[in-house]
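All the exercises in this workshop are built on plain-text protein records. Sequence and backbone structure share a record, each on its own labelled line. The structure tokens are whole numbers drawn from a learned vocabulary of backbone shapes. The record below serves as our worked example for the rest of this section.
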Amino acid sequence: SIFFEVDGPYRAMILPASKEEGKKLKKRYAVFNFDGTLAELKGFEVKRRGELELIKIFQSSVFEAFLKGQTLEECYAAVAKVADYWLDVLYSKAANMPDSELFELIAENRSMSRKLDDYGNQKSTSISTARRLAEFLGDQMVKDTGLACRFIISKKPEGSPVTERAVPLAIFQAEPTIRRHYLKKWLKVSDASNLDIRDILDWEYYVERLGGCIQ
């Protein structure tokens, strides 16, 4: 059971189900006013800092679709249309999207709560990103707390855990020779001269992340 204090009257309240039976539900809900505006939104990634941008954009566009249609089936069809659009973007490897938009879409932002040295041998995507930032920008860049880590997940080196496949977004703005040198090193490839961002990305990882959110 989930208990709510509601003022109302409201037009609708959207509650997600659990993905697995018997798993506890987080308190998440979207409550709509009669004019279609959100009265309340709780527990969704769209409100969090440091989430995958794609998921935040998907969520900000999907909620209003729940108000469409006259039947439950029509409502779900409207919601599915939004989900299909973003899945198509991933399945097509963002074919019709400029690189700058693609970077925004698949970038993930995390802040380091402590200094990099304080983490010791711990592993995470943000720690890997910070270490790699230090490699090509210098240690002084990562000496303070609160470092903002923006990264993408690459599909190479294949078979490595996700934590070791985080690539700092900043490398793509670096000089071509520097970019090639570090991408070659981090991705463990013999030649990085013709690497396009679309060849680097782990598309399956992003489909899985969005798929979980859609579910």
Summary: The chain has a mean pLDDT of 83. Residues 160 and 212 are 22 Å apart (CA to CA).
